[in-house]
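Posting for a labmate who doesn't have an account.
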Amino acid sequence: METYVDLGIAKLDLSRRQRTGAGEAIFCKSKTCEQLLRILQAFDERGCSVLGTKASPEQAAFVQAQGLPVRYDAVSQILTLLHGPLPKLDAACGPLAVCCAGTSDLPIAEEAAQTAEFLGVAVERHYDVGVAGLHRLLSKLDEIRRAKVVIAVAGMEGALASVLSGLLSMPVIAVPTSVGYGASFQGLSSLLSMLNSCAEGLTVVNIDNGFGAATAAYRMLRLACPEEASSLP
């Protein structure tokens, strides 16, 4: 069985789904259009669905012009190459709630939401519920409490994650974003706020890493669902 493909510029992991339950993803940023095309073509030739993150509009337009049937979402910068239907987790394994503080955080929130959907997770979105207008969040709490896992996306001081973790019983995964004025230091202030939160049960991923948060949530949800957990590699 072919476990990886060596293209010289990249080694494509073809056995990741068997090991982890989720296929390989491509971090598109800093790759040339030609490099990304070669990688996607190799997956396409093997009938593999693949997710690309941080893809630029120029990269997407280039690979589409070469005839590859990729989909691109400009907000999340998610690029997908699909072969067959997406997997679906059992309804008992979800849903996942993706919450973001403000409209400026939407790109990272959508990266998380669309990554989770690519992995088969049912997602409920709750956007623009930051602490500057706490009543907006409180009005959505009953809906958010339906979730099995919550992703909280916020820049500035990153307070949304602490508030949610202090109000909810399920795991909360915090995603700091690089949104904010100068003293936010491109997301460092929200990252440190989330890491130093006194709200228990809060897990933090790196700045702007909606993909990582979604992948972690996916693994949590699979473990929480007996039928899915029994099928883990």
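Reply:
Got it, the structure tokens are right above this. The chain has two domains: 4-81, 91-224.
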